[in-house]
């Protein structure tokens, strides 16, 4: 039996090792995301009781980390092995998936621009659902706190949205110490304070609204993000172009 041998490799040596170098970084990043996600789940006891995932009504940021990790791990592995072994099937899978992800990102961006009112309403619903589940998951809590502190905002449309949470609502039936308050991330920071006062939002909404401006952020996070985007459109465009070039 005679075997035909190619005089030249199907993939150039330069391109082969450039692709391998890029994908080993991509693969290691995927491993890091997966490790971080699994560690976070183990800290919350999810790995010992996987049903905890279904009992959380809000958004679990760890799920997003794990999804990104799985995609990066799979693509990085396919790219590494495909480049080293010159496996055309794996390289086609890698390139095809990257193109699909890019087109998906582009489609989402265009649709979000065309249907801004629908996106705004869905984001409002999403934010309100997560306000309800604020105390149910520590990662979700940290995510909302970070969003409010960075954007100097409170709630989806304003501080009153925290009435949706059983710990912060102002109903007479509530026995919570945080009743009629807001999370500490809504508080206007005091430069003189070296230690974060996590009780600064207690009873705030029992006071008259004209006093709120000096104590808490009164703008909702949706209006704050809408105001942030036009001011930073070049940064957003630059990030999108950078991601596109990497892909």
UniProtKB/TrEMBL annotation:
It comes from the Eukaryota. The keyword Transferase does not apply. Signal peptide: none annotated. Keywords: Cell membrane, Disulfide bond, Glycoprotein, Membrane, Transmembrane, Transmembrane helix. GO terms for cellular component: plasma membrane. PROSITE patterns: TM4_1. It is found in: Cell membrane; Membrane. Gene3D superfamilies: Tetraspanin. Pfam families: Tetraspanin (PF00335). Its main location: membrane. It is a multi-pass membrane protein. Disulfide bonds join 153-186, 154-170. Coiled coil: none annotated. The chain crosses the membrane at residues 20-41, 62-84, 90-115. Belongs to the tetraspanin (TM4SF) family. This is Tetraspanin. The gene is TSPAN14.
